[in-house]
Amino acid sequence: MKKEHLVSIIASLLLLLLAYAALSKYREYDDFRFQLSKSPFISPFAALTAWTLPAGELLVCLTLLFRRTRLLGLFASLFLLSLFTAYIWSMLHLSYYIPCSCGGILAGMDWSTHLYFNLGFVFLSIAGILLYRPATPGL
Amino acid sequence: MKLKTKTAWIIFCLLAPAAVVYLLYAFTFRPNREKNGFTRRFSTLHAIPLDTLIAEKRFSEICGLTDHSLFIALADRRTILETDWTLQKEHYHTFPLPTEEKIMSRIQYQVDSPVYNIFAGNGPDVFKGLLYTKDPPRHFHYGWPVFVRSIALPNGLYLFQGFDYNKAGTQQDFILWDPLGNNQLKKYDPFQPAADMDISSEGLISYDTALHLLVYAQFYKNGLYTFDSNLAPAGHATTLDTVHTGRMRAGRTNRSGILEYSAQSPQFIINGQLCLDDGKAYVNSLLKADNEDGAGFDDYSAIDVYDLRTLHYLYSFQLPRLQGKRLISLRIRGDKAAATYAGGIVVYRLEH
Fold it and tell me: Which of B40-44, B165-169, B228-232 has the lowest average pLDDT?
């Protein structure tokens, strides 16, 4: 399989994950904001995070969609997924209270499973970035 | 983009989020990683584990005890385990509760062997019967919106603790109810007026049959209250810690079309368990004292002991945890204690 195809598959998987995560957050917006307000780390910024986070995820989806911005999208995905992973790890190890904050099927995962799930996508993003070759040299 | 540049950006994308999360953590309330401003007076009392029962079952509250038996509710909500203090005997009592979701939404057992009371649903419905018989229990219904905890008092009355609302807003009420005449004898909100729907005032209630006192320890702040059997205030003191105001914001959430009133901030429970025995209140505090070792604090449950008559703090002792798990329920009788954990029960001997 060509590297280009692999990158497309990785970008599609990331796009699906982020789009699903963003839309399920908007669909259950009240619940998402409510759970964020119970997070010790995010509580003061719950209202702001509740709409900017899914908006950011959708923006990253857009960058993954177009070939010209795909590398940027892969970096942005890596950033977001690293952020989620660091957040989950710190909640598991440093927080005195753990709320639930994901919608859709992700809500069915416990926090440890979620950590490994995210780590998998972090590695996928890194692989996508390393495999990425611009169609036009120099990009 | 060259490989070197890509690698640099990958490292940035991995480290920058970690830094962001660290900053969020650094400015967060860290209850047991900082000094909490109080010290415990550890006595010579030691809790020595005697017998342990490890099981796949999920144990819940210890809902009754006698000199010979322990009664423990199971997570399936229809069954209680009766065992002895050596944890050798296992006898299960299953109750044919109605299948209605509303009734099964909340179940609380109280066993004063052989009498049992089951408080069910948000009604609440009360089922009162006798263990070891096939007679169906008596069924009482009190049409009150939400209950949190209930107690069957020795005089045949019931105490309900729960939330209700009126024009002034949501409040936490204690209600005395006579089931035979279906009479509400008293309705009383001891924490009125509260701006946060009384959610920050929530706590654990227990009844001392010797002193005829209701004892109430708050979850989120250091309020310790006693009331007589008619709900008249008998005493008020603070638990050992220094948390005068609960770190709790309450609010209304629309979840799938259903309005819910609940805490809208991280919940840090200060007083996690309350049990009474021999004129003393035993409170499991989840807050580390300044004279306790931070690393060791997760290996035991700190139990603070108060005199029920004066509400003065007496001393503390350490209850070793089962596999580091947090205490679910604690009951003390004389020189013995029983505790449930996720997946196990431990009986301790308390000795000086």
Answer: B165-169
Contact B92, B80 (CB under 8 A): yes
Whether A138 maps to a domain, the answer reads no
| Nearest-angstrom CA–CA distance, A137 and B6 | 15
Across the interface, do A97 and B267 touch by the CB < 8 Å criterion?
Answer: yes
Q: Euclidean distance between the first and final Cα of chain A, in Å?
A: 22
Mean pLDDT in chain B? Answer: 88
Which CATH architecture fits B63-280+306-311? 6 Propeller (2.120)
Query: Is position A106 within any domain?
Result: yes
- If one counts the domains in chain A, the total is 1
Dihedral (CA of B190, B194, B199, B201) sign: negative
Query: Chain A residue closest to B33 (CA)?
Result: A94
Three-state SS at B7: helix
**Are B32 and A96 an interchain contact pair (Cβ–Cβ within 8 Å)?**
yes
CB A10 within 8 A of CB A124: yes
Calculate mean pLDDT across residues B334-346.
94
DSSP-derived pairing of the beta strands B329-333 and B336-341: antiparallel
* B48-90 residue pLDDT tens: 999 999 988 789 999 999 999 999 999 888 999 999 999 999 9
Categorize the per-residue pLDDT at B144 as very low, low, confident or very high, splitting at 50, 70 and 90. Answer: low
Interchain CB contact of B254 with A (< 8 Å): yes
Q: Is B205 within 8 Å of B151 (Cβ atoms)? A: yes
Better-predicted residue by pLDDT, B146 or A69: A69
Q: Is residue B240 a contact partner of residue B223, using CB atoms and an 8 Å limit? A: no
* pLDDT for position A105: 55
Q: What is the pLDDT of residue A138?
A: 46
Residue A136 resides in a domain = no
Percent composition of chain A: helix, strand, coil (DSSP 3-state, to 5)? 80, 0, 20
Q: Name, in order, each residue with C-beta under 8 angstroms of A48's C-beta and a sequence gap of 6 or more.
A: none
Subunit contact A39:B1, Cβ cutoff 8 A: no
In angstroms, what separates the C-alpha of A124 from chain B's closest C-alpha? 12
Instruction: Find the range with the poorest average confidence among B163-167, B174-178, B328-332.
Output: B163-167
For residue B256, the chain A residues in CB contact (below 8 A) are 31
Measured CA to CA, the distance from residue B123 to residue B140 in angstroms comes to 10
Question: Is A82 a residue whose pLDDT tops 50?
Answer: yes
What domain range is A121 assigned to?
A: 3-131
Residue the block writes with tokens 């010290």: B39
